[in-house]
């Protein structure tokens, strides 16, 4: 009679005891994990779709894109947002805004290591604001000395800097201490004085400073010279024309013809926006179809088949995109929805709607309660970061996995108990069989 291997037998029988439960738990865990993954993909697609909606439904961007073109390059650039009205404007650029740059009257032998006073103050005023440099604070190592480099650093790194930049410039073997305003325009003129230093050369250097570049405001004329004069401390004029920003870069010469600025719809940019919207929508529909498919003879059942979250999204979104807004439907402007729920664009029909009725097109997409606003309102409950329906669904599924993990741990304990029991039984049986074999051998 052959002997038994107690460990092998105990392992096999203990495994048989728990194997059906183990397989069932693993299948459930895999199913929940697959659902979490699929929900994450659909959620990402929904966020991408919402981003596409937001990008064409904000205070600065509508479905209709406008363009701004200038008759001659080099003098002026312009951008037009969604609120800009079509029109043609004559603009003459008289002068551009410049920043104040000044050079102090420091000694000719000035160097970056030249020592400066460590008592008194250096006071700056720019555009009604003041900044004071306490010269005693420049001695950071306690040796009673401070240099021009220390002064430059103290000005530029001052946390209360009011728009002044200090520089040491070397030219023709000499070093010059320069100050520049960080902003353009007359209002940003730098006024500086030193006092209480006990060093006449230092205080006189600021008193006798000279301008390298005088500050000036930008000046343009709407309607050409003799029209409406506009001045600005910056080279960018915002809101002079509704929805249009103008940035001047070079002054024209007296007597030159004014520039022509044309504002109008940008058909290509508008179509690009609508294509981005359609692509994001179709990507969302594709993912939902893939994961919620009921399956068939040649296709697998989706892991989110009959899922209530996806059904809700599909139902609400379908109602919105097939609805009527401002008396119009998507099909009337060249956006059709096929039998698979995907959007297709008839470019010719869309361009015609844009060309002949852009105001109605904009009113259909943009504005409270219209298409894009309705979509944004609908998706919001699904995408909230803490209470969103996607987060709630994934959290619930993760809790299910955690409960399965607890069951698996309990199953491991059951295995250990069964293994110990079987091991003891087979060890005892093996001992008896060994004794029997020994007894039988005595009888030949």
What would you say this structure looks like, in words?
This protein has 444 residues and is of the alpha+beta class. It has 3 domains: 7-61 and 268-392; 66-97 and 218-265, no CATH class; 99-213, Immunoglobulin-like (Sandwich). 43% of the residues lie in helices and 22% in strands. It has helices at residues 6-55, 148-156, 200-207, 267-292, 308-321, 347-356, 358-365, 371-383, 389-442, and strands spanning 66-70, 76-80, 87-95, 99-103, 121-126, 129-134, 164-171, 174-184, 191-195, 210-213, 218-222, 228-232, 236-241, 244-248, 259-265, 335-337, 343-345. The strands form 5 sheets. The protein has a 5-stranded antiparallel sheet with strand order 1-15-3-11-12. Helix 1 (6-55) runs antiparallel to helix 4 and helix 1 (6-55) runs antiparallel to helix 8. The protein is flat and about 130 Å long. The mean pLDDT is 89.
